[in-house]
Amino acid sequence: MRASRFFISTLKEAPSDAEIVSHKLMMRAGMIKRLGSGIYTYMPMGLRVIRKVEAIVREEMNAAGAVELLMPLVQPAELWQETGRWDKMGPELLRLKDRHGREFAFQPTSEEVITDVVRSEIKSYRGLPINFYHIQTKFRDERRPRFGLMRGREFTMKDAYSFDRDVAGMQQSYQIMYDAYTRIFNRFGLKFRAVAADNGAIGGSGSHEFHVIASTGEDALVYCPTSDYAANMEAAEAPSLLASRAAPSQPLEKVSTPQMAKCEQVAEFLKLPLAQTVKSIALTVEKEEGAKEYWLLLIRGDHELNEVKVNKVEGLGAFRFSTEAEILEAYGTVPGYLGPVNTKLPVRVVADRTVANMADFVCGANDKDYHYLGANWGRDCAEPQVADLRNVVEGDASPDGQGVLAIERGIEVGHVFQLGTRYSQDMNCVYLDENQHPVPMQMGCYGIGITRILGAAIEQNFDDKGIIWPTSIAPFEIVLCPMGYDRSETVKAETDKLYEALLAAGVDAIVDDRGLRPGAMFADWELIGVPHRVVIGERGLKDGNLEYQGRRDAEAQQVPVAGMVSFIKDQLKR
Amino acid sequence: MRASRFFISTLKEAPSDAEIVSHKLMMRAGMIKRLGSGIYTYMPMGLRVIRKVEAIVREEMNAAGAVELLMPLVQPAELWQETGRWDKMGPELLRLKDRHGREFAFQPTSEEVITDVVRSEIKSYRGLPINFYHIQTKFRDERRPRFGLMRGREFTMKDAYSFDRDVAGMQQSYQIMYDAYTRIFNRFGLKFRAVAADNGAIGGSGSHEFHVIASTGEDALVYCPTSDYAANMEAAEAPSLLASRAAPSQPLEKVSTPQMAKCEQVAEFLKLPLAQTVKSIALTVEKEEGAKEYWLLLIRGDHELNEVKVNKVEGLGAFRFSTEAEILEAYGTVPGYLGPVNTKLPVRVVADRTVANMADFVCGANDKDYHYLGANWGRDCAEPQVADLRNVVEGDASPDGQGVLAIERGIEVGHVFQLGTRYSQDMNCVYLDENQHPVPMQMGCYGIGITRILGAAIEQNFDDKGIIWPTSIAPFEIVLCPMGYDRSETVKAETDKLYEALLAAGVDAIVDDRGLRPGAMFADWELIGVPHRVVIGERGLKDGNLEYQGRRDAEAQQVPVAGMVSFIKDQLKR
Questions:
Q1: Which helix or strand (DSSP H or E) is residue B386 part of?
Q2: CB A458 within 8 A of CB A26
């Protein structure tokens, strides 16, 4: 490519609505252009990156035996009604009506459509397994779109759907996709981590998220540096930090803790470790005919509640936090002074695993400005129900017993999921087995946020000059910067010669023939993030040299003209 | 590709809603699958054709200096309001609202968005010319979607937009696109014709349609076999068939023509040539405050009215056909007996060029069941306004004076258009010229109906067995049909060897390893339309031969195993 035939548009300053690095840099590098809230035009420079990401995804999906098709964006409401998602999905689902008033969804994913395709196309066990995918525009009407391509409304996703005869087959299809994803993210040249994810109603270990590691990531990833264990915060099992419960050694004592509604304040005031305190969280579950059920969850004072884990406690699928009026009714006091001892009404108490093994703990006294010291299970209140309720923290024992947990930040860019018969049952997507019996197909679904990859790659790879693309997804692999392309015959000739040689060698090069001054030219390409650069100048050519610099290199190096192509091919391989 | 890893789904019968050949064959060949009215899933076999079409379009657009980007599907109403198209476009424009009630259009084309991009990105004459394109999903909410991909609602289009400093620049950009289109359609391997099209309000010769020639095409294409003249029916100028008007030789005579409302009936009854009769068409134009203006258009009895030409007559931009009540009011009679002589109210009479030169003609007498014989302009009624009102017919003189016109049928698959400042003025898309004066940019737009190409290619290339794809856009270039892949070691080995050799030679081959019987296997590939086939069988191998047959060949031919790859490469080049 020649820059004069391309479109390059860089900005010194990012627009004020760009909050995070990747959004700022993509705007400044002219990769995207905002059309509306969460809606972007992919400018030529950005589109090149998207196409490279798509090509890698496509190659690996095909190599893994998945078959590409393309499903429509505008999908009839009737299909979404078959699975109930038409009603269940909130305003994120963009709904529209055609000229005849018929209702449609703008696809956010395509489970319904692919299941409809498969139920009419595949009738026999002989047609299974099959895995269909497409790379297609999606729309999710986010309440608060932001961060550029990270949380846009219109975006591009690769979504694949596998169909199998049985659970074992589904798990095999799932593993094939897991392995393909690993190859894909490796080819992107990004540091990533696959973590076990919460699988909702389906259970089992049937869901993994693929995260690009970045300190700015929204998600906390839990992993064990000395084993294979990795999970997201919702799925990471928190162990009890106490192997067993000690016998009570203190009497129950009610102490004044004036205006100390937080465990930290109480611990400091009482000069006790925070780990001796228990935090009480009051929940309400609404039952039929206006009846309410009150629940009290207990976690150690230094821990954090994990609401997804709470959701999984039987009976808490539809919990909400109690109001102050409900707290007054159930506990006779105000928030900050609740506890499991002497509640006003009977409440269902669930203790986190660690809390369940605590003795002589500090908790609210259900009386404003008072806490109990020396509270003990069984003696001062009933034994609690026990559950994993908290976020793990660094240093917790790994659930596989192979070490302790560490935590890092990530950006979710892929998700593989064992769906089972969630969709095939609602939509009667069955095959006839060897005995001609109809059996619902076992499904899996597998997504990669194509456009999100760009944001994630930048969050992981940037410096104060701009983006640093991994070579495999860079808009161009290398930029040739001639010093005086329009002034020096020698420079022009050597530039063109090198450019042609690189093209012939299959290198994706761009020549900057715009006639910019060196400073502006270099700044553009450092901002855009092309990973390799060769400067062609008369001075170096006198010694038979060109100047090479990798985007991360502190210094340029002189490379003989004759060896440049093979030198570059070596650099590209690194 | 191996068929066992692909998805092939053929049908013996097309669904009943498929009316035309291409729709039937695409359904039967498993290329598309209906999701809703005018909305199709592109199945794996069809998607391969789409990708090949896209690749050719992309290569030639890039070679012509156009720059690819990708504009959003969901576009804010505000932009469409700037050009007035939000209100002007009817229900074809799919409108939608987001969760906040803001209005958007699902793009049918992207003039507004690209003009918005360019007005903020390009400020100076130095940035021009530029031509941006994208290949993107479109939605047009057709009142009556039909014919599969020919008239769908959701479809894929390549749309390009050029921006120039002045009209000469725009015309140059237009010519570059015209030439690129010619290369594109040549590479598709389709017989096509570029015809001048009606340019609406802009005038000049600034619009051409590219049609794939097919006897089933919706559009009539007019061309001169002995010159370069070609136009669509709306743009083809119809000459007067009479060089000058003869003097009146007959008196005006009112004759009884009972129940003969059609020229054909009158001519037969009076034993006169049809070319002596004149057809009268009554139009109404509604003026302000309920006033009506009556117009009478006259064409020769054997000619057809062209409504687009009528539209271009000054004052008839918003005509409609008169109602029977209006006809009674203006002419005092019923339809079928109208004429320019003795109308009840004064009406504006427009005669087609040929009619204007007729003498002693037959026309309605404005009296039920009566016609006039021997009517003459100037003598029996006032001289008419003259205009080109009719469709040309075969044998008409070519407007360039280089021969006579012929007519063939075509399917419109591309359109190039000089827009001028239609959009840039409404949207204030200006550049600063050398003197820092703001000048509106001169635009052009250029579309290719990517998915429509599939339908058009089939309408041009099929037989009773199925589709016959041109090699360049076939889903696979060649199919290898082993006779007993799973039974014969020799057949399997030779098949795999040939397949690998073809892949290495860059040939897009598929091996049918599904284990079908020969008849079913051949029928599938003839239906799907893969243009080249090699059969690998034990019988032929005994003599060292394989059997080659082109999709259009009546007979197969034996080709020695050793020479097969180069033989096939020769076939692919033809």
A1: strand B385-387
A2: yes
Q: Which of A42, A72, A92 sits opposite B40 (nearest CB)?
A: A72
The two three-digit tokens of residue A105, written as one number: 């969804």
**pLDDT of A202-219, one tens digit each?**
444 589 999 999 998 989
Q: Which residue has the tokens 């109990």?
A: A372
Give the DSSP letter of residue B211: E
Asked if A154 lies within 8 A of B72 by C-beta distance, the reply is yes
- Chain A contacts of B139, Cβ < 8 Å? 73-74
User: b/e string for B236-251 if b means 16 or more Cβ within 10 A?
Assistant: bbbbbbbeeeeebeee
What DSSP element (H or E) covers A174?
helix A167-188
Alpha-carbon distance B380 to B366, whole Å? 13
**Which of A2, A4, A54, A67 best probes binding to B when mutated, by most B CB atoms within 10 angstroms?**
A67
Closest in A39, A47, A154 to B69, CB measured: A47
Contacts with A91 from chain B: Cβ below 8 Å: 99
Count of CB atoms situated within 10 Å of the CB of A427? 20
Chain B residues in contact with A27 by the CB 8 A cut-off are: none
Q: How far apart are CA A534 and CA A556, in angstroms?
A: 9
| Closest chain A C-alpha to B75 CA, distance in angstroms | 7
Fill in the amino acid letter for A494: E
Q: How far is A552 from chain B (nearest CA, A)?
A: 28
pLDDT-wise least confident of A199-208, A215-224, A259-268, B427-436: A199-208
Asked if A511 contacts A495 with a C-beta cutoff of 8 angstroms, the reply is yes
Residues B483/B513, Cβ–Cβ less than 8 Å: no
Residue type, B413: V
Whether residue B200 is predicted with pLDDT greater than 70 in this model: the reply is: no
Residue of B nearest to A138 (CA): B73
CA B446 to chain centre: 14
pLDDT tens digits, A439-463: 999 999 999 999 999 999 999 999 9
B33, B65, B116 member nearest A117 (Cβ): B33
Chain B nearest CA to A246, separation (Å): 55
Q: Does residue B296 carry a pLDDT above 90? A: yes
Do B267 and B278 contact (CB within 8 A), yes or no?
Answer: no
With a cut of 70, say whether residue A200 has pLDDT above it. Answer: no
Nearest partner of A460 among A295, A216, A264, judged by Cα: A216
Contact B99, A143 (CB under 8 A): yes
Contact A4, A521 (CB under 8 A): no
> Inter-chain contact A36–B113, Cβ cutoff 8 Å?
no
**Beta partners for A138?**
A155
**Closest residue in chain B to residue A1, using alpha carbons only:** B62
Q: What pLDDT sits at residue B290?
A: 84
Looking at residue B205, what is its pLDDT?
Answer: 54
Domains of chain A: 32-70+111-237+407-458 (3.30.930.10), 253-387 (3.90.960.10), 469-573 (3.40.50.800)
Strand residue runs (E) in A236-366? 253-256, 278-286, 292-300, 320-321, 348-352, 361-364
Q: Measure in Å the smallest separation between the Cα of B464 and chain A Cα atoms.
A: 25
Per residue in A352-391, pLDDT (tens digit) is 999 999 999 999 999 999 999 999 999 999 999 999 999 9
H/E element holding A175? helix A167-188
Q: For strand B320-321 and strand B278-286, is the pairing parallel, antiparallel, or unpaired?
A: antiparallel
d(CA A464, CA A486): 31
- Which residues of B fall within a CB distance of 8 Å from A73? 73, 137, 139, 154
Cβ contacts of residue B299 below 8 Å, gap of 6+?
A: B278, B279, B281, B305, B352, B354, B355, B389, B390
- Chain B residue numbers touching A121 (CB-CB < 8 A): 7, 9, 33
Closest chain B C-alpha to A166 CA, distance in angstroms: 20
